[in-house]
Amino acid sequence: xxxxxxxxxxxxxxxxxxxxxxxxxxxxxxxxxxxxxxxxxxxxxxxxxxxxxxxxxxxxxxxxxxxxxxxxxxxxxxxxxxxxxxxxxxxxxxxxxxxxxxxxxxxxxxxxxxxxxxxxxxxxxxxxxxxxxxxxxxxxxxxxxxxxxxxxxxxxxxxxxxxxxxxxxxxx
Length: 172
Ligand SMILES: *[C@@H]1O[C@H](CO)[C@@H](O)[C@H](O)[C@H]1NC(C)=O
Ligand SMILES: *[C@@H]1O[C@H](CO)[C@@H](O)[C@H](O)[C@H]1NC(C)=O
Ligand SMILES: *[C@@H]1O[C@H](CO)[C@@H](O)[C@H](O)[C@H]1NC(C)=O
Ligand SMILES: *[C@@H]1O[C@H](CO)[C@@H](O)[C@H](O)[C@H]1NC(C)=O
Description:
Layout: H1 2-17, E1 28-30, E2 36-39, E3 54-60, E4 63-69, E5 74-77, H2 88-91, E6 98-101, E7 108-116, E8 119-129, H3 137-157, H4 162-170
Parallel strand pairs: 1-8
Antiparallel strand pairs: 2-6, 3-4, 3-7, 4-5, 7-8
Keywords: Membrane, Signal, Transmembrane, Transmembrane helix
GO molecular function, one term: thrombospondin receptor activity
GO cellular component, one term: plasma membrane
């Protein structure tokens, strides 16, 4: 009985104090216009004053995206994410955000896992791709109307449809 109680106490103690708190982040979006994509990850209670105590791991499903080993100051990227990078110094301020070229970005859920000595925490951030129209709906209307006007005016030069053109313009 007693060993069990002690174990439980130890477990709850380590849960209470040994967690890094990572901010909950809304899904981030990118479009065809983004050259690079930044997936945010913030730790709000970093205490380390040197990178030696920090370890960071970004994953996409089971795939490794980037591993940063603070004590060695090295970043290793996964095969499919060769453009992945972080700013190591920013880790000390709690920023573990990941930067990727658009060509390496895959929509889905990314896991940011930060370890500081014996404390650790993780967050899942969803990256979404959004298709954008080049032009706003209003501009689309103009794009359709201008060639039509041009054609009508061209015909109008020959007097063939100038009557209709005037009718058309009166309608507005
Ligand atoms: C993270 O969350 C904490 C508490 O909610 C807040 O004070 C802090 O500004 C946030 N940090 C960032 C970088 O969003
Ligand atoms: C994509 O670019 C937009 C506009 O520059 C920016 O607001 C957004 O954060 C970028 N998305 C990502 C995931 O980096
Ligand atoms: C890289 O992506 C390809 C195609 O999406 C996938 O088949 C492969 O398993 C990925 N590589 C790794 C190391 O997961
Ligand atoms: C990412 O995770 C969220 C919450 O668990 C889920 O709703 C969403 O469908 C996931 N997205 C993908 C692309 O798996």
